Amino acid sequence: MIALVRYTLATTIHGQRYLAPVLLFFAGVGISAGSDSGPLPGVYALNAGILLVCVTWVTMAVISVEDPTHRAITVVAARGPVKVLAAAIVVSALLAVGLTIIGLGLPLAMHPRPVTAADLPAGALAHLLCAAFGLAFGLVCSRLVIRRQGYALLAALFLVTAALLTTGSPPNTLFKRMANTSNAADILPTAAALLPLGLAVLALAAALTHIVSVRRD
Predict the structure, then answer these.
(1) Residue 6's Cα: distance from chain center in Å?
(2) pLDDT one-digit tens code per residue, 155-190
(3) Which of 49, 137, 148, 192 could form a disulfide with 159 if both were Cys (CB 3.0 to 4.6 A apart)?
(4) CA distances from 13 to 25, 38, 52, 92 (A)
(5) Domain count, the chain
(6) Which domain holds residue 180?
């Protein structure tokens, strides 16, 4: 499995399809971090929203880096599609974690702000929640599920927009609470309670992607 993850990571880096969403994340976080945009929880909420968009894009890019022929060869070599899909999820998650670290650290480096003990944990939970939803959206909108790129893009835009703007969705609920408070300790219970829901959505998306891809192959 480790060798397969290394192969997927090397293929992703060589393909360079991850660069566009990563650069978009740097640009978005740089703009939010470099301005006096208020207390740190609100900044982290904005960065987490940007992360949701970019991780969705990154996941779709990681899964699409191999064409169907090369993926079929990889599946045979790995003795099944489960490991191949798991490796793609691990690589996407590693990239999401890297972006999360940047989203948490850049606001502190670019614009000095008062920092409390709860700011970083709350920000980390918000980023991880959005990363989980981004991974899930990227999976169900990838080429394994939606073959036509135009339809996949429309589906991804719909899911991301719904998650960010629909009242009651976990990301939207957390964003509103973070934007309306200057005390991150108040939102820690909510953030901690929503993260397992995000992981459950990711698990369901992974299962759905596997089932659809196996039937189509």
Answers:
(1) 20
(2) 999 999 999 999 889 999 998 888 887 788 888 898
(3) 137
(4) 17, 36, 21, 12
(5) 1
(6) 2-216
